[in-house]
């Protein structure tokens, strides 16, 4: 049986947080930037959907700054959610946090804490905002990327902000090879050893589904987002903020 290059419920999941801090430029800062952007658009009682809850750093970052926000995190990895649950509890911010094992399409009013929903919230638009960090590049561009973005959009009301943070790039573009080589050297600068760099490069080659920035913007528009603006770029990582269109 072919082993998944990114086994988030296995050895890769065990090492994920250390690896993310090593290879993603501005990893911790990325959550703080999203927080700063969302604070400018949301009130103190906002409901947020966090797609790819991961190890819970994003949720804890948001809740410490905005204790009145109610956050629902979804993730396909039970292992990641166990870590997130422990981190949220350890930080003392579990009130108003719901963690769901599954995808956006698994979200249902029955899965959400009744205290987090008003009677008017029982339609599709449960949330006032959403984020999606480091998820879409694991999905092939065969409809899966589009379905993810559309699923998020369908759970937001018109005008609601959405923050996307992604590894991205056009492999045919003139600058891709230079940026990828620089990113690879960044791993070494960050202290990643030679054997680990070789292993990680093999995972990238086998499991990353690249999309260019124009393609990402196209997918977001087709999913129902408008006013897409890039607010961050570092090597092959980018961050965009958009609004749900009518």
Care to describe what's here?
With 246 residues, this protein is α/β, with parallel strands linked by helices. The protein has one domain: Vaccinia Virus protein VP39 (Rossmann fold). It contains 8 helices and 7 strands. The protein has a 7-stranded mixed beta sheet with strand order 3-2-1-4-5-7-6, sandwiched between helices. Helix 2 runs parallel beside helix 3. The radius of gyration is 18 Å and the shape is globular.
Specify the biggest β-sheet. 7 strands, mixed
Any idea what the radius of gyration is?
18 Å
Straight-line N-to-C gap:
45 Å
Q: Name the structural class.
A: alpha/beta
Counting structural domains, the number is 1
Please give the oligomerization state of what you see.
Answer: single chain
CATH fold description = Rossmann fold
CATH superfamily: Vaccinia Virus protein VP39
Instruction: Give the CATH level 1 class.
Output: Alpha Beta
Proportion in β-strands: 15-25%
Number of helices: 8
DSSP strand tally? 7
Report low-confidence residues grouped into runs of 5 or more.
109-123
Mean pLDDT: 92
| Estimated helix fraction | 25-40%
CATH architecture: 3-Layer(aba) Sandwich
Helix-strand pattern, N to C? HHEHEHEEHEHHHEE
Strand order across the largest sheet:
3-2-1-4-5-7-6
- Form type: globular
